Amino acid sequence: MVQELLVAVVAALCFGALYLAAGARVVKQYEHGVLFRLGRVTGDVRTPGFNLVIPFVDRLYKVNLQIVTLPIPAQEGITRDNVTVRVDAVVYFRVVDAVSALVKVEDYKFAVSQMAQTSLRSIIGKSDLDDLLSNREKLNQGLELMIDSPAVGWGVQVDRVEIKDVSLPDTMKRSMARQAEADRERRARIINADAELQASKKLAEAAQQMADTPSALQLRLLQTIVAVAAEKNSTLVLPFPVELLRFLERAGRPPVPDGETPAGETPDEGMPARDTPAGITGSTVRGGPPPG
Q: How far is CA 283 from CA 196, 258, 269, in A?
């Protein structure tokens, strides 16, 4: 009798242990558990830790509350200024209501992915190419709002949406490269013109200063000679005033008696001009009857 009782107790304990093991559930820190009893949601959401359910009656579904990184496949579309582009993005979202994520939508990840692709195509059609390339913050906010509006009813919250890359046709890339090159060339010409204007003003001031002080021009000439000679050139070009050459030429000629014109000079240069008949220049008029 005692032996049969011990066997029954041991059997009951084993059955209880098996029942307890079958009904034991562990919910992790980053999860929430939703309990379905005979197909209906029962009780509150199970918090992280050890939880017991009724075996073969209850079913506990665990929902991950971590932020999910969902890449959006590249979508091809035509912008508002008729440029064909391919744009891909990434969505960061998380579940805030585990019950809604399981009950109101079949697969919330797939639903968010399809909504993100549709919204991305819509954003491409409403934007210009310049906005896609330089004004991405505004487009990211608009895309986040378009995805988050229906996702709220699914118990999903969109934290952030980022446009990763914008692919352009090769012809458009070449056109943009030519535009950038032309713009840089325009800026370079403006800078050169501005430099020429400033240099001309400084040269005008220097010329005025040299005009006031003639010796400054000679000093500048000497500096130029020194600078050219430092290059070890075999030929040196030296500017020389023409007036100085004429002065030296006149100084080297022998004295001429009064009343005569030096060789190489006209009467205007060497002495006062004489009265000559009309039509006769450069010769001396002698007396006598005119030719017949």
A: 55, 18, 15
